[in-house]
Fold each of these.
Amino acid sequence: MTTNKIKLNIVGTEYSIVSDEPVSYMTELGMQVDKEMREIMQDPRISTAMAAVLVALNNADAVRKAEAAADNLRSQMKGYLDDNARARMESDSTRREIERLREENRKLRERLSM
């Protein structure tokens, strides 16, 4: 992977970031953080440091909720896969029973036709 050095301007301060992520992605993240901090800093009582902490808390909350949602989806998918496996086993069992009954039916027809 290529290491990229990116300069981001967040609420008037320039940050040099080194990342393996594409420059465009890191620029988008920087713009998002800048926007969120500026929105919070509309309240004149909020300092840059306070805004950074609030944005970090908001993002940590979003990450935790996204992880919980992903865990829930994984759990649901596991349930669906388990249901699918059970349905396949039942289907296979039913097919075998149908074949057994067809064979039994064929043999009974042969006996009757004698």
Note: The mean pLDDT is 96.
Amino acid sequence: MSIKKKNRAEKKNSPHFNAVDALIVILAIIAVVGVYFRYNILDFLSSSRNNEEYVVSFSIENIRYTTPNYINVGDNVYLSSDGELLGVLMSESENQGALNITPASEFFTDSSGKVVEAFYPSENSRVDAKGRMLCEGVYDSEGGFSVSGKTHLAPGQTLSVYTEKVTFSIVITEIEIYEE
């Protein structure tokens, strides 16, 4: 066999990349992107689309009497465990702060026999407080409430949370739909 015929035979046996091969590669890429889109992006969009606003009521026990000075209406509340946004603090009425503290009082009789009412908290005393925050979430099929589809909340649950200025623990007391 001559050298020219041998070169032609080698060219016929070597693989060629043509339009059909390019089409197969493109279809494979589209299939992978489609599967990713279906299982990740659509699930994310549908879970956030079903979110509603809820008011989560909570109590805080045994905090310093000055701590409520650092907790304000409109502050973002984050979970200490992973930094996820839990909600935004709100008040029960327009002229009220983020936390409701009922000062304790006690009656004493002074040296002249006059009854005097002393209010607490006094310096270095500790108080309990109640508050509310606006959260976005959904009730799931098992009856639990999920914030952003991730964190499950239920009455009686204790969570460690923080704002920009202070860290504290809350006990969830009630979850109800937000009505303006």
Note: The first strand starts at residue 52 and ends at 64.
Amino acid sequence: MIAQLSQLAEMVNGVLVGSDCVIERTAPLHTADERSLTFAEKPEKFDWNAATRARAVVLPESSNVQLPERYSVIKVDNPKAAFEKIVEFFHPKRAPLAPGVSPLAYVSPTAKLGEDVAIAPFAYVGDDCVVGDRAVLHAGVVLMPGSSVGRDSTLFPHATLYENCSVGANCILHANCVVGAYGFGYDSSTGEHRLAAQFGAVRIEDGVELGACATIDRGAYDDTVVGEGSKIDNHVMIAHNCKIGKRNMICASVGVAGSVTTGDYVVMAGRVGVRDHVKIGRGATLGAMAGVMTDVPEGARIVGIPATPEKEQMRKQAALAKLPETQKEVRALRKELNAILDRLAALDGGDGSAKQS
């Protein structure tokens, strides 16, 4: 697909500065070539004599940066949004799964389906399940008995809801995520590991996104809950009885142990680990790979293993970086001290003048 730059400028309500030309593709700055259109939100940060090979650039309307004559420019209020619209023109989205139930899917006679539901081949909808209006279940999705999916939610291939679990409206569950698996709790008092109670379920509130292979375990007696608008990345583990607040951001490979509670707007960076029964306050940020062993106050920023406040951890890391140099200084000081002690000892063993002084 090709387009005139003037056509693209009109599409995004932009102003073309420079000559019109043919554009064949879109690309980021560093991979663009002479056939490409790229964009920059902060053009003043770049040396435009070498920044990119692109033929044309989308820039902020407010920018006063003078680009070399070889570039043509589209000026818009929001370069990123405009560029995304142009990218979609060159790479149109595939048509969504059409409403209807595939004859290769299984839907229990006791299940209730809303209007314009789309269910792909080999999906399974068990007894007493509820699927809301315009929900989409891709191939291999499994809804075990008593589970429900809210309106306008999408479950990608092989996402699984165990029995009695619920997903709210406008949610996205990516491929192979599992909601409602048994919690990892055991009674070992008899010398054997006997699975603990699994009477709770999982409740996913509206607007939640679960990444590929994310797992949310069911509660023992009460539900595990993921709050409205929270976004959970790939390969995240949320254990039994957890209560995740609203609009949390939980990045890849985080592990949250049982009965943890978080406030709203908590951020957990990649590979954070949180021990059981910890409370994390509203707006707290847990830095990458933090090992969280104790409660975290509201608004705190913590990092490290074990996790401590960010400024404290930075001081520790700075001190650790200087450790080899510090060791050398200590050895030199010890050598000087030993020499002084030897001289004092020699004076003490002489005519006693050292003692008299």
Note: The longest strand covers residues 56-60.
